[in-house]
UniProtKB/TrEMBL annotation:
UniProt source species: Chytriomyces confervae
Transmembrane domains' residue ranges: none
Protein name: DH domain-containing protein
Gene Ontology MF terms: guanyl-nucleotide exchange factor activity
Record-annotated DH domain positions: 1-42
Amino acid sequence: MRYALLLKELIKDTDPQTYPYTDELKDGLDAITRVNERLNEVLRKIENEHVVVD
């Protein structure tokens, strides 16, 4: 989550007129967001399995 927040701030503070890689920053944000979502799903699944076992 920390990297997503950093990328959001970087994108917000970056001028697309002077920095030619703004699209790549946005692609990176999309990718790290997908990773975070998948990680959260896996962690939630593991937690639910522990609840069922207990």
